[in-house]
Structures are given as C-alpha cells and as structure tokens.
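Researcher: Please generate the 3D structure of the following complex. Treat every line as part of one assembly.
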Amino acid sequence: MKITEMLKGCEPGRIQSVGYMQIIPLISKYVDDSIFPPTIKASTTDYGRLVITNDTVNDVLVPTGAAIVSKQRAQDHATHKGVLVKANKTVRIDTAACIQDSQGGYLNTDSGYHLSVLPWGIREQAYNVRERQAYDKLWPVLRQFSSNLGITQNQGHLASFLDKFAEDMNQFIAEFEIVPNMVGAIVLINGMVIGVERCPNHSYWEHMWEPLIRESYGSAVFQFVNQTRELKNIPKPITRVPMADATIKNIDDLEKEFDRVTSEEDKIATQIIQSFLKSKFNTDSEQKQGNTEMFSVKNDQFLGQAFTKDGNVLYCSLVTTQDFMKRPRRNVRKAAPDWDDAKEFSM
Amino acid sequence: MTGLTTQKFAFEDLEITEAKQLANDVLALMNFVSADTKKGTHYQSETNIEEARKTVYQKVFMADRALFGCIVCMSGTKNDFAKQNAVKAYLANSWNTATKSSLPFEKEQDFIDLFIKETQVNRVLNMFVELAEQRINNSRTRKAALSYILGSRSLPLWSVKYRAKLQRILTHCWNLRYKNVLYRILRNKSTNKLKKRFSDKEKTFLYQDVLKHKHAALKDIEAIECIAFILGIDGDYKVPLLKAFFDARTDLKAGKNLPMEILEGIRSTYHKDVPKEEVIKLTARKMTQKQKKNLQRTAQKAGVAVTFNPMAFTMTELFIYAYEMGMTEAIKKAIEVKAGKLANTFPIRYENIGILIDASKSMEGSKQQPLKPIATAQAMREVLIKSASTGVIKVAGGFKGKDDLIVPAHSTSLAKQLIQLMKQNLDAIFVISDGYENSPSGRMDEVMRIARHIGITTPVYHVNPVVASESATGMRRFSQSIPVLPCANPEGVALSFLKPMLETDPVNGLKTLVNMTLSMIEKTKEVAA
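Model: Done. Output below.
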C-alpha cells in the first residue's frame, strides 16, 4: 500500500500556516457517509480492557490512538488500535492502555467522557506496543512526555496535559480553519511533515478536528517550542516564503511579488506531498469484517493505521517516526523515481 | 451630592508618558467595550475574556473613573453589557480621597442615570441582583435600585414578570427586618381594602421606603398591591395584571394580558392538556419586539401571524435574524435606514472607499454567538457604503448563500484582495475581519509594510468585531500599520474613529473623548426634557 492509494480522490487545499504549525487540507468529494464518527459508550471491565459499545444504528469507526478521558473516579484508557464497531455491536479491546497512572477504578458507560487522541509524541511508542496486553505499558512514555512539557503533578495522566494546556490549545486550534469538503490534512511543524490524516467524510473530520489538531498534533507544537526554547534563531518554516521587498517599486510589482510567493508556497506544499507519495508501507491486517478491513501500516517515514472498504482507503492516520524526524530536512526533495512504475525494457 | 474631595485633574497636567499610558489603557478599554459581549468567541473562552476584561477595566477606572464612563457612553446605545459593568463599578466603589476623576461627582451620576435608562430592564435587574449578591448596599446603590423599581410606571408588569428578582433586590435594599415587618403588615390585611385599614404608623412605615419612590401615575394601593405580590402574598388583587396572574390558573384566557413566558409557565403547571401554541395565540398582541422576532418560526408552525418591528433591533441582530428566517423587504428597509443614520455620525468620512470582508470559517462565530461576526461585518458594510459616495466591495473566502447573505467558509487569505483594492486609488480601505490570518499568518503585515515603503498612503482600517483576550490591547490586529476599529455592533463604531487621534495626540484625544461625551449627554437630557 502506498500513500497515493491512501489519499486517492483527495486534492491538497491552500496551506494554512500559523506560527510553527502548518496544515495542508485534504479535500475530497469521494466520501463514504455510511461510516460515522465515534459516538460510542466506553467502559472498562479490567485494567487494560476497554469495551466499546455502539448502540446507534450506524457503523462507527473508533480512530487510531483514541483516548477516553473521563471525570469518573476511574482509570482513563486509550487504544492505539482503531476499530470499526458495527451498528448495535460491542467490541472489546484487550490491548488498551491506562493513561492515568495513579487512579483506580473502572470506567462505566453511564458517565460522559472526552474523546481525545494520544499526543503525537507518544503515538509511535503506542504503535510499538499495540499488541501487548499490559495496562501500564504507556506510563513511562506518558510521564516523560509530561515532564518534558513542565508538568510536575500527575505526570502519568493524559488529563494533566489536557488541563494544563487547555487555553493554549483553544487559542491554537482556533487559528486554523476547516475548509469545505475537507476530509483530512497533512500536518507539518516548521515545514516538516509530522502526520497525515484522512477521514471517511467531512462530518467525521469535523468530529475529529479537535481531538487530532487541537490535542494530538497541538501537543507537537508545545514539544517543538520546548525543544527550541534555547535556540536564538529558530528557522522560519520552509513553507513560508518571504516577500522580496527590495525588488518592489510600485503596486503592480507588489501584486506580482505576492503572486510569486503564493505560487512558490503552493509549489513547496506540492513538493512536500510528492516527497512521500510513493513510499510503500508494510501492512498487517488487524480487523476484517465483510468488505472492510483495518490495517496497521509502517514504513521508514510513517506508522499508523489505514481502513479500507471494498479495497478503497477511507481512513488513515499516520504519524512520522521519531527516527525520520531526526534526519535533516528530508521532506522537501525531488521525488525519487519509483522502479515499480518503470516500464519494462523493450525494443 | 457635592463637595466630595477627590483627586480631580486635567489632562494637560499629565506628563507625556503618563498621558500616553492613559491613552493606551483607554484604547484597550475602547476595544473591549466596543467588541466585548460577555460571551466566548471562536477563539476565546468566557473565562479568558473575563480575566482580560477585569485587568483592562481596572486600569482605566483607577486612573480616571470619568473617562471610563465616557468610553462606555460613546460605545453605542445597544451596548448593555458595558453599561452594566460601568454602573456596577460606580456603585460598588464609593468616592473617597483616593478617587481620581477628571469630572465632578454629579457627572458620574449622569452616567449612572443614562446607562440604567438605556439598558434593558431584565439586565438592569440582573445587575442589581449581582450587587445584592456581592453585598453592596451603600446609599447610592439603594437609592438607584429603589427608585428604578418602585419608581417605574411598569411596576405591575415587572411584578409578574420578575417577581423573584425584585424580591431579592428589594429585600437587600430594605434590609431583612424592614421586609419582614412589611410582609407582616401586608399579609394581615385583606388586600382589597389595604388603604383603609392601615394605621398612621403603618402608613408612615410604608411611605418610608415604598410609597416615597412610587411613580405618580400609580395609585398608592396599586403600588402596595405590587409589593404584596412581590413578597409572595396571595390575595384578592385589583391591579389587573396581578389579578390575571391568579385567574389564569383556572381560566387560561384570563391571562391573555400577561407576558408570554409567564402565561406559558401557568399553562405548563395548571393547564397541561392545552397546547403550547394556545399561549402564543393569546399573547401575540402583548409580546415584546424581541419575543416577536425570536418566535417567528414557532409562530409560523402554530399558524399565528406575529409581526415585529425591525427598527427596534440593531443591524447585527437583523442580519442574524435574516440568516435564520430569510431577508424580508421590511428588514432590508430597516437596515438601510439605520445604516444611513449611523453613517451620519462618523467623525471622519471618505468619498471613495474600498471594503474587504473576511468571510473565512472563523467569521461564523462561536457556539454561544453563532454568526455574530459575519452579521456584524455585513452590517458594517452597509454603514460604510452609506458614509461614502462610492464603494468597492470585496469578499475573501465564503460564498453567497440565500438572500445574498455571506456564508463563512475557507481559510483566511486577505492580502491579495487588499492589494487589488490599493490599485484602485481609493480614499480609504476598510478590512472587516476578526484579525486571525492563516494563509499564511503575517502576510497582511508584509503587504502593508511594503505598500507604505513604496509610497502607497491610502489609509487602511481594520474593523474588528471580535474581542481577543490574548492581546494586550484586547484586539487582534494584522499589522502595526493598520489601526484597529473595534466594533461589536455598528452602533458604537463612531467611538472607534477616535482611536487614531488617541494614538498620535493622547492629550487632545482624551479631551475630545470627554467633550464628545458631555455634549452627547446634554443632548440626551434635552431630548428627555
């Protein structure tokens, strides 16, 4: 499976850039309205055992990295594995993880909860231990994540992060805007791609907008700010082309220069997308139901999940691997020729 | 009250740095007062805004409480929230030797009287309830509350409509002992012969804090019945509304003159089998203009014609209504008339103007105030067009919806259209936007900076309908080269035009603000007289 297949039917929208974060909207008319966002009931029957009940008449897709954050006196839980829950069905996930290390008690379906998505910085570790049955498997990484962000109390609680940065995240999310027919986004930090998200339809994307952009990817901005605090000159994102004011003599020049930088920024966005379009993924089937299938996917740049229906990818959630992030400026490059596309030699 | 000693000062006596600081604080307060509506925005929670508001209000109030009143006064007749805040601040903080004010005490009373008069009844009462909850009970507060409530000709209507609130406020003003004695006196009488049975001692007691304040058009017995009703005493009332309140329990039609929400309360308790629509039918004639506007959809379903007067609403409210119910000729006409009137109040006018409307997704507003920013933007467009001879309008993002109303959508990219407007040799350009830019952020600033550098001098103003608590000035701006004119509703925009003056010449700007206000108050007094 390639990203070209995962994003089939999508077109990139105009890049949105605020501060260190950029979003390239993915716009598509090829949608499947039969898959609904996760309006589910969640409970735990044991630590690390998450029960998801769909008592609606629609099939719902629980997203990759879903985190159930509740006000109950019970352990909040998360699952890296996204799953399809058919109408009026219940799914039990035995590989879920507790995300509240000093809280006992089981979640029950009676109380409400907040649906979040695991912070970007711990998605990879969650992927790596996705098959392990251990409720405490994310505690060390969650504590490290909190500590890095200056959280001193309840570091093993995802809720601590959500509480501490609530106002910052509200302000941050509001700077970006959902555009018509948007079903996903390519997310960048300072010009580096950190994730690719595609949802089955616009309504699903609207539902996931805050859990994903505000919380999961928003946490990456705080991590970036934290890591670069000591640096005197943080480079401007490569997606942001400055206007060359020295060459501008009159208003026509100004308009031309505006058009030039806009076109340049669009080209860079295109190049960013092209740079990873043809990379192939190793896939493992995780859940097959009728004509639908959920895969875990991984290559040297991304890891995550993809969901297909009749062989078409309707959903994917990919984050860039930490290893790839450490490589200098790999995103924008001329796409390497794909040998699979090369025609056989003939005379 | 005269002769109060205070730290009165003149703006000319201020050091330059002090004047600049005061002008900056005034600018921040103007931003808040002009765009703040208590509710959260697309970007900010109510709590965030509340915190920022407190800081900004306090700075100006402590520096000069007269200036504080001037800003609120000039922010438009419909700005109830700012007026409530101002009255609360004045009443809660008595004058003392540390008080700083550039105007005498009597002027402050003028502000209080004007603000209370111009604010909706329910909001004034809410304000007095808040003061009661904060246990603020100085003589000025008591006098203001008692004369407002008991001195109203509408006391019978208010009694049935706001019974619990009035009881809370009056008990606080009178004190519990007075209220208890009053309750015992009234409870022990047969209300149809109240007047005859009062002893002289009781009459004196009643005069002390009830009849002394009553409106001349109300008879003593009517005022006393209202008080008995407010205190929760059931009886054989003669005041028609009070009588209707009790009669409607057995015969719903007897309550046709009651406020709709009161009759609905009675229906849902005593006449559960009667459909809700019956209440709309019975009270259609007596509804307030706001109720008539808000009930259009329900009334349509119920098959009842409820016509409202669009002139009783702000332009922003009319646009919001049009989004929901459609644009009618009457609304169009009202918007046009209002826009014309407002355009005449502009202190600065231009011949040929350009208007750039941000119609990106964020302009659809918050959950608490859906469509407010885009409705305000369209209202401002109408006023600005009326203020000039010719106008060019551009819309960035969004699309045209029903009745040509703009539907917000897409990301925020305004710079291209700004350049195109600059090419048209206009006298001024107005960008109506919440100030949040993402395609990419900072592009407007780049364009403006270069435009000024190459000698383009067209004034560009940023009309902003959204308050931003994260900004020290209370308002998000695109660029230091673009002055912001805060505008929660076009009715208060004239004040915004003072901003450039305050930025460049603080002392004269402050003086102009005070003079404009005083002249406005005098005019209002003349009209009232």
